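Protein record
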Amino acid sequence: MTLKELALKRESCRSYKESVVSHKELKEIMETACLSPSACNSQPWRLIAAEGEKAKEVSAMIQKSGRNQFVEEASAFIAICETPAVLRAGVCFDQQHFAQMDVGMVTMLLTLAAADKGLSTCILGCFDEEGVKSALKIPAEIPLRLIVAVGHAKEPGVREKIRKPAAETICFNEWT
């Protein structure tokens, strides 16, 4: 499969089968995600998989606001925390928040690694942060940025990707 085919295969799934994602599969997709680039190779992330009973606990914390009811069906979750980045001297610290971009890249690679294994994901930003941190024993000072639901899609196939026209998102040599 080409990278473009994989990108087309990856989508936000909101309907999962009641089948388990194996511990081995979770470990493999997290290990692949951790190959993601990061500023000064700081790797400012910690990925925490929640499976089995712990996944049910995390699912409840994601649904607490009344949103994301579909996560009840997901087999597992991967919490993505931002850890302190150690950047080399000479890097311009005031213009960019590198760690947040690095967390975005590790998340994208995680979802592509899952799609490559035939798994479906949904990146979630709404959840009871204190509840999830308590369930997963994440220290209070560590930001929990995202949670990725992982499972097997109930419906096979991929929805059509709806994207802005290329002329609105890419250009060459100058802003046009």
